[in-house]
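To whoever is covering the structure queue this week,

Two jobs came back overnight. Logging them here so there's a record in the thread.

Job A:
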Amino acid sequence: MLSTRLIAPADNAYAYPLLVKRLLMSGSRYEKTREIVYRDQVRYSYATFIERVARLANVLTAAGVKAGDTVAVMDWDSHRYLECMFAIPMLGAVLHTINIRLSSEQILYTMNHAEDRFVLVNAEFAGLYQGIAAQLTTVEKTLLLTDTPEQSVELPNLVGEYESLLAAASPRYEFADFDENSVATTFYTTGTTGNPKGVYFTHRQLVLHTLSMATTMGSLDSIRLMGSDDVYMPITPMFHVHAWGVPYVATMLGVKQVYPGRYEPDMLCRLIREEKVTFSHCVPTILQMVLNAPTAQGHDFGGLKMIIGGSALNRSLYEVAKSRGIQLTAAYGMSETCPLISCGFLNEELRAGSEDERTTYRIKAGIPVPLVEAAIMDDHGNFHPADGESQGELVLRAPWLTQGYFREPEKGEELWQGGWMHTGDVATLDSMGFIDIRDRIKDVIKTGGEWLSSLELEDLISRHAAVREVAVVGVPDPQWGERPFALLVLRDGAELDAKALKEHLKPFVEQGLINKWAIPSQIAIVTEVPKTSVGKLDKKRIRGDIAQWQASGSAFLSTV
């Protein structure tokens, strides 16, 4: 063990805890008059925002919220949600961001499992909440959230309506210091098997994540995603990993923030245009939804920078967005990682290369951000070299990774086996530090005696001019073990069959990018690819649908 020198601090030295309240108080010193905007309905300054956070803290305290209580929120992306992201943790309570896109049974499970005591409910979800209220085991009181304060909605144990309560509360609150390792937030992963799992993050973790993300987005010259003069709007739900943590960064920097409420493509495009949004983030499927919106046609998005995460960024989408004026940057993370782990970066060597080479690296998962350690591990716990070829499971260390799963210690032990957090993703690391995600371990396809990446095949298929969206999964095959099956959404007026797709993929076989077994012998043309509640491809459901189609001899299957 190393021998280190410890020096006792002065008796009256202030032990500065890393708390969420530090992020709130930093932003207002830069731009007090900058705005927080909600759709086309609400706008106010940072000075008012700080007052509203204090008012909310007073309302919650009067309702009985104490340090250690769990307070849940059911809302669309809004200024109210942003206020909750600060006020609730700053009281020492735990913010539970409920995934309102889960089934009612799963929402009920998460609320009981998290032991929610107070719930803030948007009027749009009143019916859903009323349907599960009798089965909630720990909830004591509710608050109503509505865009129209005069709207009357009945909720069990209702304290009152949000805006009316805030208007009557004091605009000042003395937020106490407490242990920075206190849990600040919790939410539940959207796994495709079993019940959702609860992850949690402390104040210290959120502050360190915010500082690293701010450095990554604002200081790395080949990225430059968000600085203090940018205008920020999330298109990642605030219930999903704190909208990837960016609202904390934006608030710390005093950035103008725009919250779109329910994701309606035309409203998103309108807000981007009218509020002059310059930075956002989302998953690929949401970006495609925005680009295909009627109000987006003919619109120049020039100046808009976006992080794409949640699913692999393929070259086709990158090029389409670029042609519309949008600069995309791929990033990687997951619910358990708070989430930022890596982000696209081009060093001097890559910037001096061709445009094609720069694109190749921009769509990779990127280089680990400051304070993150990444490694590639085999099934026996041995590390692979960073040679860009050796594949294994991506494992991580960082100061903001969840330390386990709430009330499921055995799953937490599995997550952290060997002192590294196991991602479940197959990846490589190269000599420059780039992470290249090849697939989820459970989605890798074994065919013809070789491993095939569904993500790589999706990228190559997406380059066909007729393809708007693609998902590839492995399906059982008596001869080859598995064969890839492609689910395709075509562009308007386009046609494509399995034979034509085979011809499209042959050159990639000849180039050695994929083997001949990677060419799907069967495809399905659909109008929509199944997604999870956060917009990712739902490959478990896709496999089930394909099995049903094959069993029934569905007419829309195309076979070579």
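Job B:
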Amino acid sequence: MIKAGIVGATGYAGAELVRLLFAHPEAEIAAVSSVSFEGQALSEVYPSYRFLNDMICEDQDAVVEKSDVIFAALPHGLSQELAAKCIGAGKAFIDLGADFRLKSEDEYAEWYGGTFLDKSLHEQSVYGLPEFFRDAIKGKKLVANPGCYTTCSPLAIAPAVIKGLVSVKGIICDCKSGVTGAGRKPTQGSHFPELNEGFHAYKVASHRHTPEIEQTLSKLSGEDVTVTFVPHLLPVNRGILATVYADIKDGVTFEQIRDSYEDFYKDEVFIRLLPDGQCADIHNVRYSNFCDISIHHDKRAGKLIACAAIDNMVKGAAGQAIQNMNIIFGLDETAGLILVPPAF
């Protein structure tokens, strides 16, 4: 059994890792840590884990010592030193934060206000979106696990971009997220009376995920891609819906676009391409690692409208991290992740 450790186990992404790894056939949780709840049992923080996982939250050093792979579910800026410690000890490190996602230190400084503490570590890291970069992930020790918006948006539009069927100029990513994406620490914006029965955009044209989406689409297309990214906050716990708009190139038919999606995703277990006329819905992917994609043709405007729905805590965080772990260790990629979304 692979021994997995979780640093930041009491945040939402960390807690979701605990839930999913509990049922993994080839991995077990060896140790967990939490700065806020050190010395307390996980089941004290999340009573739903009672008798299933009553592990005591230890310090980070204990997690590194006891584990083969360490998942870091930490805010940005807190993973780089831990990553160095894990790699130095010969352990695999999967970072659910943002510290290794951007390849450009200048962009990291601009959007996160930090620096690369060890440039060699960043050179070793690989971006962990398996549907695009699976071969690069295999056998690696340091994986930057993408976030929710940065998973959903590229998955929605990638096949058309890769095949050159749409223009990479003027792509719009119009995204909606459940409130768990804001983390467990309460804020005014996630306070129930502020959030309930409301719906609003936030960080318009200034969200930190913008350069990450552009980095992925630029790498896939071979061109510099600039996107307009606008996130919105939904009054629901879970889910991301990305609606991505792109101009269809002259002479390209919608049938060609549909064929490109069917061909690109034909072997991807976690991608469910919906038939024409159906729309991706966050309701249908809850608690699962699936990404549902629907594509639509606006004939009047000559645009492709691609919709993608994921559970932001699973495919957008913990589930994708476990998918990366499975790839790193040569396991069946679906191990522990074939979960049926609830029907209601």
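Note for Job B: Residues 314-328 form the longest helix (15 residues).

Please reply-all if you pick these up so we don't duplicate work.
Q.
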